Amino acid sequence: MRIYLTTILLFLFCFCAVAQKQGERFAQSYALLDAMLNNEVEYSFKDAVFSVENAYLDGKLDKTEFEKEISVYVNLCNSLLKNRLLEYGEKDRETVNKWAAVFTVMTDSIPLYIQDEQYVYTPFSYDFKDVFGHHDKENLFVSKLLKTRKGNCRSLPYLYKILAEELEVNANLALAPNHVYIKHNSERHGWFNTELTSGIFPIDAWIMASGFVHVDAITNGVYMKALDNKESIAVLLVDLAENFNAKFSDNDGSFALQCAERAIKEYPNFAKALILKAEANKVQWQNETDEKKKKQMLTDLENQLAHIHNLGYRQMPEEMYLNWLVSLKTEREKYENKNLNNFIKN
């Protein structure tokens, strides 16, 4: 009996130690993202993404290998830049050529010659398996995309932004219902959308066609806003909190609340952060035993949900999202910016 009890206690001690270590990695990732937002450490979307994914993967993600894999695609972009020049004469031509190189590497086949042998580089593809990361959050990760060459509407634009920044040009993340894409602003074309899931440049009408983009959501910057680098870090803070909740489903909501509030401070109308905060507050409301406090917490929660609705946020059913995503291919002629599409692919 004593031996059995000792074994149980030893198991519980080891389990708690592992859980504590895992929690520390999430705290370390939060500290890094917060330091970037406070300008205490140099901003790097690549480092931020790595820290968020490594926390969920229990510290098993190899930083050297992660950077090595990214450098392969950076080198391929640089090779394209040396051997191809777009017919574009505006003063931002160097930047636009770099965007075009990243887009080609992400979405197009490229002939390669190695020791006089011709090979064909195949681009990344969309993975319709576990699109929302319900089964495993790793399916949303850039590290998974690099390993399998299959990604989704989160990992693909994240990698695009990383590659652009490695080439020393900016790439703005933008949000749509359940979706992330890229926005650029060029001298010739103004603002335009870059969609990695299907490899085209859709007009804004495609995003509006989802039926879940209220005009207030656009006005308030909930959707279709070109996010700056700090707002992109705010997006990663919500990713971090969602990963934490997936790893530790039975938690008190305090870590998610910390992430949500820091994200909201940087991006006040970020709907996912506001929802995350409301969900964390709901957990705390459910655990509250003081009836007076509980009543006030419920009032506060109702006000938060009303605020989210007033911003124009509308929840899009997952099945409708997938149909909307597919429509970009099935109705390509209707939604693509043909002039831009032909120009970039020249």
- SS elements, strand count: 7
Q: Mean of the pLDDT scores?
A: 91
Which series of helices and strands comes N to C? HHHHEEEHEHEEEHHHHHHHHH
| Unreliable residue stretches | 8-18
- Beta-strand portion reads 5-15%
- Annotation field: number of helices: 15
**Side-by-side strand order of the widest sheet:** 5-6-7
**Biggest sheet record:** 3 strands, antiparallel
Terminal residue distance? 76 Å
What does this structure look like?
- It is a single chain.
- With about 350 residues, the chain is mainly alpha-helical.
- Helix content is about 60%, strand content about 10%.
- The chain has a 3-stranded antiparallel β-sheet with strand order 5-6-7, with helices on one face. Strands 1-2 form a two-stranded antiparallel sheet. Strands 3-4 form a two-stranded parallel sheet.
- Helix 5 (about 140-150) crosses helix 6 and helix 9 packs antiparallel against helix 10 (about 255-265).
- The longest helix is centred in the first third of the chain and has 36 residues, at about 1-35.
- The chain is globular, with a radius of gyration of 22 Å.
- Residues about 10-20 have low confidence and may be disordered.
